[in-house]
Amino acid sequence: MKNYRITVNGNVYDVEVEELAAGAAPAPAAVAPKAAPKAAPKPTASGAEGAVKVNAPMPGKILSVKVSAGQAVKKGEVIMILEAMKMENEIVAPEDGTVATVNVNEGASVEAGSVLATLN
Question: How far apart are CA 108 and CA 116, in angstroms?
Fold first, then answer.
C-alpha cells in the first residue's frame, strides 16, 4: 500500500492505494443493474382549463394528488400535498367547485407560481 495526501478544492484527503503485481488487473466491482424508470401517468384533464387556478405557493415536489378531474371539491379541501424544505404542505381548494384539470403528477417538481390544478 502507498499512502498519499491529496488536496481537492482546498480539502485535504489521506488515501491509500494498493499496488498490484505487474500484469495483474484489479477485480471488477460488482454493479447492480438499474431498474428502468417507471413511466409517470399523464396529468388528467376533463376538457378545458377551469376559471379558478390553484398555484404552487413555493417550489417543491408533489408527494400526492388527492383529486382527479371531474371531482367536486369544497373550499379548504386538500387537493394535493407539496413537499418543500422537508415539510409537507397541504394545497387546498380556494373555493367550492369541480376540478377541471390536474396539471401535475406525483413526484413532479414544481416552481413557485406553477398552476397545479384548475377548478370550475
Answer: 10
Tell me the pLDDT tens digit for each residue of 25-81.
666 655 555 555 555 555 555 557 788 999 999 999 999 999 999 999 999 999 999
Q: DSSP for 66-105?
A: ---TT-EE-TT-EEEEEEETTEEEEEE-SSSEEEEEE---
Cα-Cα-Cα-Cα dihedral sign, residues 49, 56, 73, 68: positive
Give the separation between CA 63 and CA 91, rounded to whole angstroms.
11
Positive/negative CA dihedral, 25, 29, 30, 34: negative
Beta carbons within 10 angstroms of residue 32's beta carbon: 5
Q: Identify residue 99 by its one-letter amino acid code.
A: V
Evaluate if pTM is beyond 0.85: no
